[in-house]
Structures are given as structure tokens and as C-alpha cells.
Design goal:
Length: about 725
């Protein structure tokens, strides 16, 4: 049984392939298109998954989409009605992509997979996909399930319980009340990109104090059961293109930060405040779920579950004994969840929990053997060393790291999810006092305040961090405090510098532990343990580094630069290596230290991904041109027109005929026509949307308010809490609503 799971059209599009219940391949579209957080249909990711498994499109049994597109569209319409007449800009921005692609998902999927004529299309609900991605790969036979994100169709959080091969979601919070959207509102307010920069807010928070927490609480109405409601007068995401309103700014008392402007202490305090509130809200939900389920294990997914500081607090203070978080917790993991939903929930296949889990260490993406890498190195004339003896190679790399060098590490399969976990990583010495600044400014080209994560031998983790012996934390999803024995107490001079430090960099220069490059200003670290089963080569490298230095800890950060996805191919790795301050690059058994090569970048299309006209479109265009040409010829013959005009029409007819037979040469003409008519099409589409909005949506909004049926208010109903009972909708799996 072959099940292809897909997610897309919002952010982090992805594909995952399940064969007989086993994950065989999973990848995000951004890794192939090189467009960060790519939201396009995951065509290239799906093609790679099928090729990796040797599966033809005709052999696919199920194609699982990660949400109900028509129910999602219903929310957009209901929100437009509730916001009218103030929401035209939001309506006009949202409608075109829906009318072009998203509303027609069955047709889009059939168009993208023409060979999968026998495949059944399944539409899991957004939070069903998150829940399935959280529980089915987990090591638990039975667990409580909590999913929290921005928004799916209507739900923004849901909880339930799972046992064996069944998940039952019991209650949900509904839009517009969302922890994910609340955090994103502050992300945008602090000058970072929404749906991309939330982890920057989390990293900035330890530099500040939660001085604005009480003001943020005024944005909320929180109940004892962990549910809450956002006071919508402070937000603008329902009716506008921004996340917050003017009342929000007046309440907070800090003007919104301009992107790329200097970070002030008030910005750090604001980040600390929203982080504390997010942790409190998540803990409230977790306690409610435990009270209702009385289970020992908890699994989590959704974008909020990527907040490793909040996860650590849930693990530390929450009532659950064990907590497991899906490593691809965001929308990319929805592709995996949708496929697993079909295998277990829909087909009722038996489930045997995997140990340590069923995510294959999150290393489910493309891999390249030595022959493929050698061909790339030869093609670009890259000076390199081939070192097939692993002990010799790792010994040399350990020596480079001991010398303070930075190393690009390209080995095995690429990671599925947002974290680099040892497949596509940049490694460095965690003992270096200057390494954090070096990596941020000379290698990653990113904000100076950003912390780095450590990798540590699992067998020694409790010696370096305040966790239990041999703690298994393989996915960089929890923070931990550096062990007190490894901390360095600042002297009087350094303490004075800390108190009076004018900027972030000054605070970073003062070492706090024996591993300052991975010790954040609050003495925490986003931890990844390395064991010999999941990462045998990386484990051996850490052992060699420990033998040389006595320290089993290295810096591990994603192999990319700011604004780009993690590298996928050897060409991507070489491009990143040559353009940054990296000192060495390891490509499987090849070592590159010389940058005296010229890497010709591939030509990028000016068209958006997924917008290249296909042969069918070009033939239709040629056919229309042929029809118009023949009509013009007929008109010329009837009116005895000039021979030159007749000749032009005949030539156009001949070209159109050739275009039907060979559509490729027609593409420039087609694209040129699209370019020339773009202004007219934009004006026409805006006029049509305005007519629909003010002629239909606004009158309907007035009518709904007169009869007291505002759609968003209906979803606020609740007395003791704002949780809404959730109905089982398994029977609608084959429908997009």
C-alpha cells in the first residue's frame, strides 16, 4: 500500500511517502526550489519521494491532502462577512490564489499526478494531520494528544487521546482565538517576518525581562480550563493585512519596530513577555488535557510545538511523565500526518510503536553517494581530498574543529523539518569564546543575538547539562540549563559590564560556561543528544573530539545562510561554502578546504514556482490563436482586404498550427502576452472582487448582524471555558469539506 501525503499553499509545503505503514521518504519543497518556506504545490518534493522509493504514479493507492480546503475557504468567507465593510484589502489579497488553485484541489492533484488515475484522494482535517503526525510515529502505545498552531480550517488548538491505531480528538479552540496567531502578532510587531521569525522572538526573549506581561494579559480572557479568548479590538488579522491594530500599540506602549532597525531593551523585554505568556497558556492547556485524560504520556504537534523553551517548561512543570514532540511539527509535518491518518485511521491497520520512535531520526530526505558527489566536484573543478578511511577523515575534521575552524557537514539523508540534526549541519568548537559572533556575522550573516545549539554525546549529557543521565533529546526541541559545574561565575568587572552592557554583543562576549558558544544569556541551550544508533558517523566524530579536548560538545547549526533553506544537494553545499566564512566542507568522504573554484549558479526562472505554462495550456493558447487567425482570414476574404493583411493572418494561422504540434516555441509569446496584459488583468480582477465584496458580502454581513448570527461570535460560545466539543468526521475523509 503506497500513500503519498501532501501539504502546501500556506507555508512549508512538503510531501511524505508511506509504504505499507513505513516512512520511506519525506521532504520539503523549499529544499528543491531554494525558496525559503515555499508554499507552492510540493511537486518537486513529491517527485523525489516517488523516485526515492521506486514508485510510479500509477502505483499510488492514496493521495492524502493535509486539510479540508473548502472548510478553510468557508472560514475566509465567514471572516470576510464578519469584518465587512472594513476587510476589502484582506479579501482582495486572499481570493485570487483561492480562485486560481486552492478551491479546485481535486483537479490540481489530478493535474499534478496524471498517472495516478486509480489513486483515491483523501482530505484529512488540518489538526487531524497534526495529531496523526504526533502520535503514530511516537514511541507510546497510549498518549494524550495536543496540537497548537496559528489556524487550520477553523481550529487553532485541539486535544484528545490516542490508543493503538486510533486517535480521538475531543475538543478544540477556534479562530480567531489562537496562541499561534498571538505569538505571530508579536513577531511582526518586533520587526520579524510572520510565519518565519517566531524562533527569533524565542531567541531574543532571554535578553529581556517580562515587564509587559501584565499588559499582554489585557489582550486575553483566560479560563480555568486553559482555554482563552483574544480581545479582537487589539488585532487586525481578520480584516486587514497587518496583525495588530492601533489600540494594540496604545496598550503595549512601545511603537512597532522597523525591520532591521537596532534592537532596544524594550524590544527584548517585549519578547520576554510574550514568551512567558505563551508558556503560561500552553501549560494551561496541557494541565486541562491531563485532567481530562489522566494519561502519563503526551504528544504534541503544530507550529507552537516548535517553541523549545515552552516545551521544556511543559516537560519540567507539566503533569505528564513523558512528552514527545513531532520533529516536523509545523505544516510540513502535516504531509506525514495525512499519510499516516489514511494508513491507521482510515484503513484500520494495526500499529506497533517504534523504539525509539518512527521518524527515522528525521533523516528522510535526499542523500547522495560518493559517485554523485565526485561527479559534482569534477564538473566544477573543485580542489578536494578523497579520504575513504573514515577514521582518518574524522580525525582530520576533529583536528580542524579543535583549531577553531568551522566545518560544513554534509552526510547521509537530509533532515525533514526545520532543524539541522547532523545531515546538513555546520559544526564548530563550543568552547570558543568568539565562535557565536563568528558564526552569526561571518558564516550565517544573521542577527548577532541569535544563539546556537549544542550537540552532545548522549552518554555524557548529564555531565554537561542539567538533565537526567542518558536523556534522549534527539530533535533539538527542548532546552536545558548548562550543568552548574560547567558554569563560570563572572567576576566583579564582568558583572559590572553585564549590568551596563549597551548592546547584545557586549553581553555575548562575556563567557558564562566552559562551552560559551552554545550557552545562552540565561545559561540555557537548545539541546540535541547524539547516539551511535541514529548518527553513527557524527557520534564517532564527537568521540574523537572528546579524546582530543575532553569536551563531548560541538556547535551544530543549520547548513545555510540567512534567508535561504538548508542545503540539499552537493551543489547547494558548495555554493554556501564558497560564499561564506566556512573553513572546510565535508561531503561524505570528500574534504574541501580550497575555495579557488568558480561555481556557476543555475539559471533561475523569473516565473513563480508552479506558474510555468504546461503543454496543454500552450496548445490551448495556440488553438485560440488559430481560430482567431482563421476568422480574420475569412473576414479579409469577404471584404477583399489588402493582400498584406491577408498574408499576416495566414502566417499567424501557420504559426498557431505549429504551436499546437510543438507547444514549446510558443511559450515566449504566451509569457509576453501575459506580461503585457498584467495591468489590465489586475484592474479587472480588483473591480470584480470589489463588486462581489460590496455587492454581496457587505449586504450579507448586515443581514447576519441584524439576525444576531455573526459567524465569529458563534465560535466564542462557552460558559466555563472556550473549548468547543469536536465531532468525529472520519466519514468525510474523501470530501474536501
Amino acid at each position: 500500500m503506497r500513500i503519498l501525503g501532501l501539504s502546501g499553499f500556506f507555508h512549508d509545503s512538503a510531501a511524505a511517502l508511506i509504504v505499507d505503514g513505513q516512512l520511506v521518504a519525506a521532504a520539503q519543497e523549499e529544499r528543491f526550489t531554494r525558496k525559503r518556506h515555499d508554499a507552492a504545490f510540493p511537486s518537486q518534493a513529491a517527485d523525489w519521494c516517488l523516485k526515492q522509493a521506486g514508485v510510479d504514479q500509477s502505483e499510488i493507492d492514496f493521495i492524502a491532502w493535509y486539510e479540508k480546503p473548502l472548510r478553510h475557504f468557508e472560514r475566509l468567507l465567514e471572516t470576510a462577512i464578519s469584518s465587512a465593510p472594513l476587510g476589502f484589502r484582506s479579501f482582495a489579497a486572499a481570493m485570487p490564489p483561492w480562485l486560481e488553485d486552492k478551491l479546485w484541489m481535486p483537479s490540481v492533484i489530478r493535474r499534478e499526478f496524471p498517472g495516478a488515475v486509480n489513486a483515491a484522494i483523501v482530505y484529512a482535517e488540518h489538526h487531524q494531520s497534526h495529531a496523526a503526525s504526533a502520535f503514530f510515529p511516537s514511541p507510546f502505545e497510549q498518549a494524550a494528544v495536543l496540537t497548537v498552531d496559528g489556524v487550520g480550517e477553523w481550529a487553532t488548538a485541539s486535544w484528545g487521546q490516542a490508543n493503538g491505531n486510533r486517535i480521538e480528538l475531543i475538543e478544540e479552540l477556534c479562530f480567531p482565538h489562537s496562541l499561534g496567531l498571538l505569538y505571530s502578532a508579536f513577531t511582526g510587531y518586533l520587526g520579524f517576518r510572520v510565519n518565519s521569525g517566531e524562533y527569533k522572538v524565542m531567541g531574543l526573549a532571554p535578553y529581556g525581562q517580562p515587564r509587559y506581561a501584565d499588559r499582554i494579559r489585557q489582550l486575553l480572557e483566560v479560563r480555568a480550563d486553559g482555554s482563552f479568548r483574544l480581545q479582537q479590538r487589539y488585532f487586525n488579522y481578520c480584516s486587514g493585512l497587518s496583525m495588530t491594530s492601533r489600540q494594540f500599540s496604545r496598550l503595549i506602549g512601545v511603537p512597532p519596530r522597523i525591520p532591521e532597525s537596532p534592537l532596544l531593551q524594550c524590544h527584548m523585554d517585549l519578547a520576554a513577555s510574550i514568551q512567558v505568556i505563551a508558556e503560561e497558556l500552553l501549560l494551561g492547556m496541557v494541565r486541562h488535557v491531563h485532567e481530562r485524560t489522566q494519561l502519563e504520556n503526551l504528544v504534541m504537534a503544530g507550529g507552537v510545538a516548535l517553541n523549545c523553551v515552552a516545551n521544556a517548561r511543559v516537560l519540567r512543570e507539566g503533569p505528564f511523565r513523558r512528552v514527545w514532540v513531532q520533529p516536523a511539527a509545523g505544516d510540513a509535518g502535516g504531509a506525514l500526518g495525512a499519510a499516516l491518518f489514511v494508513w491507521y485511521q482510515l484503513l484500520n491497520n494495526a500499529r506497533q510503536p517504534s523504539t525509539p520512535d518512527g521518524c527515522r531520526a528525521s533523516l528522510a530526505g535526499p542523500r547522495f553517494d560518493s559517485a554523485a558527489i565526485a561527479a559534482v566536484l569534477q564538473r566544477h573543478d573543485v580542489p578536494h581530498q578523497y579520504i575513504p578511511d573514515e577514521s582518518v577523515l574524522l580525525g582530520h575534521v576533529a583536528q580542524l574543529l579543535e583549531q577553531g575552524k568551522t566545518v560544513g557537514w554534509f552526510h547521509g539523508a537530509m533532515e525533514f523539518g526545520p532543524r539541522a540534526l547532523g545531515g546538513r549541519s555546520i559544526l564548530a568548537d563550543a568552547r570558543s569564546r568568539s565562535m557565536q559572533t563568528t558564526l552569526n556575522l561571518q558564516v550565517k550573516f544573521r542577527e548577532s543575538f541569535r544563539p546556537f545549539a549544542p550537540i552532545v554525546l548522549r552518554e555524557h549529557v548529564d555531565r554537561w547539562f542539567a538533565v537526567e543521565a542518558a536523556a534522549d533529546l534527539p530533535y533539538m526541541l527542548f532546552t536545558a540549563q548548562v550543568h552548574p559545574d560547567k558554569l563560570i561565575r563572572p567576576g566583579p568587572v564582568e558583572s559590572e559590564r553585564l549590568r551596563n552592557a549597551p548592546d547584545v554583543l557586549e553581553r555575548l562576549r562575556i563567557p558564562r560556561s566552559e562551552i560559551p558558544a552554545v550557552t545562552h544569556v540565561d545559561n540555557s541551550a537548545r539541546l540535541q543528544t547524539v547516539d551511535r544508533d541514529r548518527h553513527p558517523r557524527l557520534h564517532r566524530l564527537l568521540r574523537l573530539f572528546e579524546e582530543r579536548t575532553g569536551c563531548p560538545v560541538l556547535v551544530n547549526t543549520s547548513f545555510n545562510v540567512r534567508g535561504e533553506p538548508i542545503v540539499c544537494s552537493p551543489e547547494d553545499a558548495l555554493a554556501c561554502f564558497s560564499a561564506t566564512g566556512l573553513d572546510a566542507l565535508v561531503l561524505e568522504d570528500f574534504l574541501v578546504e580550497d575555495k579557488s573554484f568558480v561555481l556557476t549558479p543555475p539559471q533561475k526562472s523569473r516565473l513563480k514556482p508552479g506558474r510555468q505554462p504546461g503543454s496543454r495550456t500552450l496548445r490551448q493558447f495556440s488553438g485560440l490563436c488559430l481560430l482567431l487567425s482563421l476568422m480574420a482570414v475569412a473576414a479579409c476574404l469577404r471584404r477583399d482586404s489588402a493582400g498584406s493583411l491577408l498574408a499576416v493572418c495566414a502566417a499567424l494561422a501557420v504559426l498557431s498550427t505549429l504551436g499546437i504540434l510543438r507547444p514549446g516555441p510558443v511559450r515566449p509569446v504566451f509569457m509576453g502576452l501575459l506580461f503585457l496584459t498584467a495591468p489590465a488583468r489586475f484592474v479587472t480582477s480588483r473591480a470584480i472582487l470589489a463588486a462581489i465584496y460590496y455587492g454581496l458580502v457587505c449586504p450579507l454581513a448586515v443581514l447576519r448582524r441584524l439576525i444576531g448570527r455573526d459567524p465569529l461570535d458563534l465560535r466564542d460560545a462557552g460558559t466555563a471555558g472556550f473549548w468547543r466539543a469536536r465531532e468525529s468526521r472520519l466519514s468525510s475523509a474523501f470530501r474536501p469539506w
